[in-house]
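Box S2. Input/output pair 1.
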Amino acid sequence: MKIAAVIVTYNRLDMLKEVLDAFDNQIKQPDYLIVVNNASTDNTSEFLELWSKRGSMSKIVITTSENIGGSGGFYVGTEKAIQLGADWIWVSDDDAIPNLDVFAKAYEHINNINWNEVSAICTEVRTNGEISLSNRSIRKNSFFKFKLIHVPAIEYENRSFECDNFSYVGVLMNKLALDKVGLINKDYFIWRDDVEHSWRLSEWGKIVCYTDMIVDHRVNSDDYKGVSWKTYYAYRNDLLMFKSHKKKIFYYLKIIVAIMRGIFSKKRKILKLYIDAIHAAQMNEKGVNSKYQPGTKVV
């Protein structure tokens, strides 16, 4: 049984160094560690060239010619892991630091589950020492509403629990499941790609979270505040997701919510962002939008 880990990075060299140090010092290391450098413009490339030659773990660095977003980066990295013959594939960003025993426990858990029933296993995610509930959720769909309910804190007192949805923060995916449901949608660019992918995986098999596998997520909470260029991708990709899963009622309700948010913002640029997201989804336009490049100021 082989495990490959995939990390996607973009212009966060200092954080990346901490992450890779945690992988280098794992009690039991993954068989392969794949780092996708998403066309970083800092000194990431130079650092990775030297880092890849250190240690006994098999290290692969993939440098893209342009920033293809987290979605594209994870697609490229997962595709490479499959080519290398990995049975289980770990995914995380360059701000997720696994405890040093995570992979030792991962091998143990994977060897004690039925591979034909489990599509993925998850870690417990913590931010600033506290459980980050938003990373593992249960899908509760009614006729009129699509809702992700965070797995409650009490569940983390158990050895393990099941969920329907995960973020790409410390997850191991079963290649058997990926062969059936496919890889992440590479054209989402960023945001909601993991929601859509875990939806497909949950329909193939169980997603089991183990609370003895812990990841420290050094996330910047400011990324999730207010309206930014990322909001465009969140709404566009939600709409694309509902279209692909044939949930028309959710699709049209999301459009109504987007328009109302734009109107109530009383800011023309914000309303235009939501309208652009709706139009892109209707036209099935994916990838990066030149109007909403990373770092673009919306308001």
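Box S3. Input/output pair 2.
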Amino acid sequence: MACQNTVEKHYYLMLFYMRDFLETFERYAQYCLVIKNYSPCTLQGARSNFRAFVRRTGTKYIESINEEKAQEYLLSGRIDRKWSASTYITVLKHFNVFFKWCVKQKYLEVNPFEKIEKPRLEKRIPRGLSKEDAEKILSTSKNMRYRYKFERHRNYAIISLLLFTGIRRGELLNLELSHVDLSGNTLFVSQGKGRKDRMIPINSHLHGILERYLKERERLKRQNPHFFISLKKDEGFAERGLRRLLNKIKERSNIYFSTHTLRHTFATLMLEGGCDIYTLSKLMGHSDITTTTIYLSASTKMLSQSIEKHPLGF
């Protein structure tokens, strides 16, 4: 009986000192925000991965995770949930960095994800839309039925901005009135991916579209600092609204695309229009120009023009 009581006491003491997985992650997230200067968007991705892990494995404490459980979860994602190699690597990276921090804090002795191998990353060509499909999407966003004039101008401006500047979804939603300078024809992207600022020129066609939207916005007398705003409330246009807009355009145009597809389309069309790779990398906000060079393979028009220069063809 005394032995049993000792075992139970040891068990409850162990539980007392074990650390809740999600609570520990929130402490880690605070450290990343304050010290590492991570963006909330980056941490939200990691948070979603950790919640999925807890939900699927029933794990409550970080101490209960070992290499076998870690490997089993990642393999399940790859096999059962059809993760791409890129997704697998991203999830593994999130766990690796978190558990490395746990070891550094002396919460754990070893990182259970440290020795897990990464799959070879597939080299995929980014798929954009043809010029004709891009024009059809622009036309659809402008001409489909709307109840309010403001909606037409705002939605047309949103799609135009994505196609004429190549900005990311988060950058679009975080855009503020002060970031758009129509007198100087420049768009300021504040703290984009990787916490980097950049400037993007606004061409004359986009200038007119944004100007007409701003006149409609001014008519509503809204005070919200966001560039794109809600129709009925004085608040910024949200991701939920953007998702509904894209779904509506996809249904009307019969063209499947995402905001990232429009970013790929911008890059491909810019190269086909004669933009050099260095300038494009700056417009896209790429840290490494190597990331931008993949678009050279995405443009069939450029490849066709190049192959026509084969010396045996003359």
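Caption for Box S3: The longest strand covers residues 186-189. Confidence is low (pLDDT under 50) at residues 2-16.
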